[in-house]
């Protein structure tokens, strides 16, 4: 296969990065549409418009309802076409960023992303997720190119709820293991190609950064101090994780979001918490030693990540629910990016082992 590596054109990170983004946006065009929900619009909408105006850019607002479903994307896209923007600015958490990307894709124009929490790596990637009316994953869309500019203002990120950062850590910690499985199985990355060495190296750096700095970053956020631990973990959660998964590929941990999103309780968990739990299942399927998985679980305890379905929101799962998790997981294309072909029964067995080992501790 052809080897392909993709990335945003520019990545800006630091306190008050939002105030510095004007020159980076002005080369894209003269008109922008800002897509965000009412909370995010109240938080940063006026500042975005001020920065755009100072850079001689016109910026109009589009209020996102918060549900990234086909009807909402169609509505936002129709409104955006009337504004005739040169590019879209998507701001907020994962859904807000994805809404901006979906609208940009529909209009075939560039997108700029401004995350307000380091809860996932959506800001850097060309992918976006669409759900159905029952909040189940419907499909993953792919823009023609990655975001033009990613603006990560750590003075904004520091004020997000702590659980958002723990979710970002969860989403990022799995990438080392998923990239390794995808490459080992000869699976495709998000560009339908083979991974470059860079993707594997970035996944390793992402993992080592989180193991060294995640606990400190959580302490920094609790105390509202933007220090080196915090900056490094935000970079790992947004940039390193994003580059690693998109150019390296995914495996079981992300395939399981199909199953976990289909059952009570777990469907309401943050994405990063879902995949963190699913990594314990993946490592069990990899037949890793108990000591190895215990080490990961101990780290999870330190950084407030779930080690059981109960901690994820699914208390006392029924046999039917375990079956649903496994069967829906098997429908995800990433399940093929593994060292051997799996069955639904093997996934159920691995979940049971994780539950037996860690449910009492959660």
Task: Summarize the SSE layout with pairings.
Layout: E1 10-14, H1 22-26, E2 31-36, H2 38-54, E3 58-63, H3 70-83, E4 87-92, H4 94-107, E5 111-115, E6 127-131, E7 137-142, E8 149-153, H5 154-157, H6 162-173, H7 175-184, H8 197-222, H9 228-248, H10 252-260, H11 271-285, H12 290-302, H13 309-312, H14 319-329, H15 344-358
Parallel strand pairs: 1-8, 2-3, 2-4, 4-5, 5-8
Antiparallel strand pairs: 6-7
Helix pairs in contact: 3-4, 6-8, 6-9, 6-11, 7-8, 7-9, 8-9, 10-11, 10-14, 11-12, 11-15, 14-15
What general outline do the C-alpha atoms trace?
A: globular
How is the biggest beta sheet arranged? 6 strands, parallel
CATH architecture of the largest domain: Up-down Bundle
Q: How many domain regions?
A: 2
Count of runs of 4 or more consecutive helical residues = 15
CATH classification, class level of the largest domain? Mainly Alpha
The total count of strands amounts to: 8
Radius of gyration: 20 Å
Give the rounded overall mean pLDDT.
96
Q: Helix/strand/pairing class, anyone?
A: alpha/beta
CATH homologous group name of the largest domain: Dehydroquinate synthase-like - alpha domain
CATH topology call of the largest domain: Dehydroquinate synthase-like, alpha domain
Identify low-pLDDT runs.
none
Distance between the termini: 43 Å
Strand order of the largest sheet: 1-8-5-4-2-3
Strand content: 5-15%
> Helical content, roughly?
40-55%
Order of helices and strands: EHEHEHEHEEEEHHHHHHHHHHH
